[in-house]
Amino acid sequence: MRHGNQIPVPVMVRVKQGALARTGLYLQRAGFRNVAVLQSESLIAPLPQLLRNSLNEHGIKAEVWNEVKAIDVESALELYCNLPGDVSAIVGLGGGKALDVAKYVATLARLPYFALPTSLSQDGFCSPQSSMTVGGQRRSLPAAIPYGLVIDSQVCRQAPKQLTLSGVGDLVAKFTAVRDWKLAFHQTGEPVDDFAALLSDGSVHAFLSHPSFDDEGVRLLATALMMNGIAMVMCGSSRPASGSEHLISHALDRILQPPKLHGLQVGVATYLVSRLQGEHSERIDRVFQETGFWDLLTQDPFPREQWLQAVRLAGTLKKSFHTILSARDVLPEVESLIGNDPRLSRVIV
Ligand SMILES: [Zn+2]
Q: Ligand 1 centroid vs 314 CA: distance in angstroms?
C-alpha cells in the first residue's frame, strides 16, 4: 500500500513575456554558475543571443554550447562524457529534438535541467521521457523532468503557427487518452490513477475557453502542456496524455514519407478516436475550428490509403496497451468516417 506521493515537479516555472532574457537571473538566483547549453540547430539568431547576453550579464559561464544534430542515444552519451566537471546545470534551448537530448544528458549526468522551449509544439518539454533513437529505432527513454522551466510567451508567439497548432493537437489527446485508460480498466483491470487523470483537466479547459494565440492563450497552452507532463510523472506512465491517438501517430511516423508534426498527426487522430469513442468530438472540433487547426490541414491533407494503413498498424504496436483499437475492429468505422465526416473528409483525402 502506498502512503502518499512524493512527486518530482519543476522547482522553478516562469511563463511570461521576456522570460528568455531573464534566464541568467533565474540561474543566478538558484545558485548555478557554470552551465552547459544544448540548443536546436535551426533557431533564429536573436534567440541564442538573448540567452547568451543574459548569462553574461549575470556572470553565468556557458562551459559548453552545442547545437544538437542527432537524437541517437550514443551521441547523447558522448555529450554526457564530454561535460566538464564543473558544470552544475544543463540548459536546453529550442524545440523537440534539442530539448529531448538536453533532458536525457541531464538525466545521465544527474544534473538539474532547465528547459527553454521556443515553441509549444508538443508536451515533451516537461514529460518524464526523452524520445531518442537506439540502434536506429525510435524509443521513449525514461528521463528526469526539468528542474526549471522558462517559457517566454513572446518568443513562443513568434514561432511558426503550425508548431503552436501541433501543441493544441497534442493537448486535446488528453480526452481520448483518458477515455482509453478507463476502457482498459473496465476490460483488463489496469488501474486508473484518478488524480493523474484529473490533474491537467483544469488547465486544458482553461485553454479551451480561451483558444487563441495571444499572450494569455499561449500562457494557458504552455501551462496545460506542462501539467500533462506532471500527470505522467505522477502515475509513472504516459496514460494520462497518450492513448490510441498516439499509437496512430506512431504508425504514421513509420508510414508517411516524411511524417507531419507530431501534434498535427495526433490531433487528427484524436478527433477520429473521439468519434469512435462517442465522446468529446464537438469540443475538439470547436477548438480546432477556432484555432485554425482544420484550415491548416485542409491546405495540406493526409493521404487516405496511408492513413488507413496506419490505423491497421497502430493496433499492433503495443500489445499489452489496451485501447479502443484492441476493443473491436474499428477499420470499417474508420473508413466510413474518413469518407463521410465533414471534417475528416477534408483533411484525409
Ligand atoms: Zn504527444
A: 15
**Which CATH code for domain 162-347?**
1.20.1090.10
* Every domain of the chain and the residues it spans: 12-158, 162-347
* Beta carbons of 15 and 223 less than 8 angstroms apart: yes
Residue with cell 493526409: 302
The three grid cell numbers given for residue 223, joined into one nine-digit string:
501551462
Cα(211)–Cα(285) distance, integer angstroms? 12
What is the CA(151)–ligand 1 centre distance, in A? 19
Verdict on whether the full-model pTM lies above 0.85: yes
Q: What is the distance in A from the centroid of ligand 1 to the CA of 127?
A: 10
Q: What percent of the chain has pLDDT over 70?
A: 99
Residues 306/252, Cβ–Cβ less than 8 Å: yes
CB atoms within 10 A of CB 70: 14
Residues bordering ligand 1, an ion, CB closer than 5 Å:
170
Q: Is 1 exposed, middle or buried (0-12, 13-18, 19+ CB in 10 A)?
A: exposed
pLDDT band per the 50, 70, 90 thresholds, residue 143: very high
User: How much distance in Å is there from the Cα of 224 to the middle of ligand 1?
Assistant: 13
**263 C-alpha to ligand 1 centroid (Å):** 6
Ligand 1 centroid – CA 22 distance (Å): 29
Ligand 1 centroid to Cα of residue 116, in Å, is 18
**C-alpha 242 to ligand 1 mean position (Å):** 6
pLDDT in tens, 286-314: 999 999 999 999 999 999 999 999 999 99
Contacting residues for 89 by C-beta, under 8 A, at least 6 apart: 27, 32, 35, 36, 106, 111, 112, 113, 114, 147
Residues 6+ apart with CB under 8 A from 127: 143, 145, 228, 229, 232, 233, 238, 241
Dump pLDDT digits (tens) for 76-105.
999 999 999 999 999 999 998 999 999 999
Q: Taking the domain 12-158, which CATH number applies? A: 3.40.50.1970
Q: How far apart are CA 236 and CA 128, in angstroms?
A: 8
Q: Indicate the burial class of 258 (C-beta count within 10 angstroms; 0-12, 13-18, 19 or more).
A: exposed
CA of 6 to the centre of ligand 1 (A): 25
